[in-house]
Amino acid sequence: MSTVFNGAFAPSIGGFLTVRGYARLADIAKCSFADNAYQRDLKPEHVKEIRKFFNDGEYLFFPEIILSVQLDVDYDKSGAPSGGDPFQLIRDGQPFKSNTNGLDIKPRKPRSSADLTRYEISMPDGEKLFKRIDGNHRLSAFEALKDVEFDRYVAPFCLVFFGNAKDARRNEKALFHNINSKALPLTSEEVFKGIVDATEDFSNSDLNDRFGPEYLQCRQLKDRLDFTYLSNLKSVFGKCAGQNECTRSVLIQSLQDVRKQIDPTASLDSEAVFEAIKHINDTYSDKRLQTSTAQGLFAAFMFFQLSADRSRGTYEQFTNWVLRTHQYELQSIHAADLVKIFGKIAQSRKRQVFVSMQFSEDTKPNFDAIKSAVDDLNKAHELDIEIRPIRIDQFDTGYSYGINAEVLRLIEDSGLLIADLTHGNKNVYQEIGYLMGLNQGKGFAHENFLLIHNGSIGDVKKDIGFNIAGIKQLRLNDTNKLREAVKEQVSKFYGLM
Prior knowledge:
CATH topology of the largest domain: Conserved hypothetical protein from pyrococcus furiosus pfu- 392566-001, ParB domain
CATH superfamily of the largest domain: Conserved hypothetical protein from pyrococcus furiosus pfu- 392566-001, ParB domain
Distance between the termini: 69 Å
Number of strands: 14
Number of domains: 3
Strand order of the largest sheet: 3-8-4-9-2-1-7-6-5
Radius of gyration: 34 Å
Helix content: 40-55%
CATH architecture of the largest domain: Alpha-Beta Complex
Strand content: 15-25%
Shape: elongated
């Protein structure tokens, strides 16, 4: 038994010998394979999208699948073609049969002299002689369906003939490159405009069900975006002189990015998205951000504004990080990468313990006790992100800063504040008050600081004021006992016991 393909023969513009025709998708998939030497790795999400495209069935259309086949001949074996060069046989409308793999190419008589020569190409069952130059993702998605219902579907194909193995490899790679790099694709905006704006062709339910909720939200939001008022976002949405319009593509891509990060199965609230865009516009009033056209950066801002998950950082923290590390200078960046990177930084900061204390020689044992307690926990629990105690006199940012502003930023970024009340330092009280104010403003309980006092160094009656006397404190008169008590409390705070 064999699988048969039929098509019309003609040389291409560049002189390649080709046969074009139609065949069942099942037959094309069965008789072809992808050469990993040049084919792109299969992207699961892309294959999944194509499978959905198959299953939905609506607007189902397949562009031409480009295949190649090598005209193999072993002239030292019997059965070699008597006419010599296989290419010349094909050009002359003569039959060719390979004596190495059973590929059989037979001409069919044209109906008139004006008709193209037609060929019947047979391949022995079990053989995969066609290489996939273009269309591998589509065929792989089809193969994953394993549904006989699709056996009846046909697709156009173009089969290109090649000679020896070396020429075949060179030509296949060159054609693959040209197909995927030379054509000028439609911009995302042009593609989206024809769908989103066509209310007479695609209803709201069509957009939501057939294309995705982001398409519907784009339709609902795009006309509400008045860039007279959202002027700081003009560059992002392509509204400045010399830019190409990209409102729809930025909206749809950003909504997709955010939904994937928050909950791929749920839709975002359109009103919340609109309010988030207004908030981001206020943030982009910073001149540095106004130069950015990166859609991924805008989408990351949207994620941190809409997400209720504070474990990956807050909007304010993300904003400060973007400005401090010059992320706005990147022309292109993926939102998912930004969220992931800053999420790791946020986790690291949550493991950061800010130690507020008087820095003097006699209080040094207190910091040593805190550091030793933290080191013990890191070692005992083998934490992937270690707990890290910092104190402002040992912190070096690598640039000049107002020390008071830097202290407050470090306190806000840290997961835990340990305040040493020994000697009653006024700065320590200020830093405790700042954190308590932050907690109150954000509606948080006062659970992210630990107050300690070492009675062997200081005097409780002199050091601790009445305004915090009612807050739980670790008061010990022995440095070793203080160390163990701090270890227990830090362990509880980070859920290590």
